[in-house]
Specification:
- 65% of the residues lie in helices and 0% in strands.
- It has 5 helices and no strands.
């Protein structure tokens, strides 16, 4: 499955685009700035534990996608 090969930044960016959220909208949902979301998508930073729940909820991620994201975070 191609989705399994996506990096964490790609997972975040793809889901955000599928849902047609702007960086600012997703940032507001997660309680962070649009710049923080841009850093996550660029791979310069990773979401902290406090933002992870809000991020996966906001991006309407499936259990599979959440497990994949957690696996990518631990790498």
């Amino acid at each position: 499955m191609a989705r399994e090969n996506k990096s964490l930044p790609e997972l975040i960016k793809t889901r955000r685009r599928v849902l047609r959220y702007t960086l600012n909208e997703l940032g507001q949902m997660c309680g962070v700035t649009h710049a923080a979301v841009a850093h996550w998508e660029a791979g310069r930073r990773t979401p902290g534990a406090a933002q992870l729940h809000d991020l996966t909820t906001s991006l309407e991620m499936t259990d599979f996608q959440v497990r994949l994201m957690l696996r990518r975070l631990s790498q």
